[in-house]
Design brief:
Radius of gyration: 22 Å
Low-confidence stretches: 1-33, 162-192, 332-343
Structural class: mainly beta
Number of helices: 5
Distance between the termini: 5 Å
Strand order of the largest sheet: 1-18-14-12
Mean pLDDT: 75
Order of helices and strands: EHEHEHEEEEEEEEEHEHEEEEE
Helix content: 10-25%
Shape: elongated
Length: about 350
């Protein structure tokens, strides 16, 4: 890279805006949770461990100011909440899950809205910033609740340490006092899933359920998929179909040997239909599962069919796949003391 600027690549869903993405935005709008007056919702608040302990003892207090003025800032989207506080070490972050009776809600959907910071004086209890309206850089939704007494604390959600897997980027790794490398992982069960989508309660996808999955590809191919949808691969380990994984780390490795900065992961919802486990090489149905009335072939993790040991799925019919959003790596400064990054 010119100027010898060093950077590492971090997968994020907030910085990919494909040309002509109107159809993608319509998909996102369909799965948006709209706030209705006087309803109770599960929401999340990201903070530090120390502040979380204080909140547990004394309850929430209004922020003195912010994009929507005074109030308690929350999000229905855990993915949004877990990013806060910004620039805080990941291992010191905590998300507080709460229940909120939103009262009367006003939608603030653009900067300099006439009620952006005065909504409470007009009888509103909650200000809601919808996703993808241009007010929040990440494009994720946000809420500001005026009265802390409307908020009931449910529990704390913390990232858990998981051993660093072989091949995992050191940019996403941490070390403890014993110099053991680990990564921080937020459990899928803690995230707000779109309506009708099931969490991974069992290792194998259950028949006729809908799951979040990922497909790794190049930027050019991602643009084509966004415009025309997925198409079957002509062949592969499991024969024809669309290859996906419920593991983002697996999907982010593809295409193999492709420049990292040109990779894109497409996040999708999939109704898997009838599922067949293919758990060994030369399985009698390895490439003929669809002819035996199965809709998805599933390779379980750790069975040596895949060098990485990560799970894989092959979906026969592209119409079972609903695109949610593309996720692309972004350049962020390399931390002091790290020798990793792209030049």
């Amino acid at each position: 890279m010119s100027g010898n600027i060093r950077f590492r690549l971090d997968l994020s869903g907030e910085d990919f805006s494909p040309t002509g993405s109107i159809s993608l935005n319509r998909v996102l709008q369909r799965i948006t949770v709209l706030l209705n007056d006087h309803q109770t919702y599960t929401m999340y608040h990201g903070t530090t461990r120390a502040c979380a302990q204080q909140i547990l003892k004394t309850g929430f207090h209004q922020s003195k100011d912010g994009m929507l003025g005074r109030g308690v800032y929350l999000s229905i989207d855990l993915e949004k909440a877990r990013r806060y506080p910004v620039n805080c070490p990941e291992e010191d972050k905590v998300v507080i899950e709460v229940k909120v009776n939103v009262g009367q809600v006003i939608e603030i959907n653009y900067q300099n809205h006439p009620l952006q910071k005065t909504w409470h004086y007009y009888g509103y209890d909650t200000a809601w910033v919808p996703p993808n309206c241009g007010m929040v850089k990440s494009g994720l939704e946000e809420n500001c609740v005026w009265e802390p007494s409307r908020i009931k604390i449910i529990r704390l959600i913390e990232p858990t340490k998981v051993p660093a897997q072989p091949g995992c980027s050191h940019d996403n790794m941490h070390s403890d006092t014993n110099m053991s490398w680990f990564t921080l992982q937020w459990a899928e069960k803690d995230f707000v899933l779109p309506p009708g989508v099931f969490p991974l309660l069992t290792p194998q996808p259950a028949d006729d359920r809908t799951y979040i999955m990922y497909h790794g590809t190049s930027r050019a191919c991602a643009q084509q998929i966004l415009w025309t949808g997925f198409r079957q691969s002509e062949d592969g380990m499991l024969g024809r179909g669309v290859y996906l994984s419920r593991d983002l780390q697996k999907a982010s490795r593809y295409p193999i040997n492709h420049p990292e900065e040109d990779k894109v992961v497409i996040k999708v919802m999939v109704n898997v239909g009838k599922v067949k486990a293919i758990n060994c090489q030369n399985h009698p149905m390895q490439k003929t599962w669809h002819q035996n009335q199965y809709d998805t072939a599933w390779v379980p993790p750790g069975n040596r069919m895949v060098p990485s040991g990560l799970e894989e799925n092959c979906v026969w019919d592209p119409r079972r796949i609903w695109i949610i959003e593309p996720i692309t790596p972004r350049a962020v400064p390399v931390l002091p003391g790290y020798s990793y990054g792209y030049m």
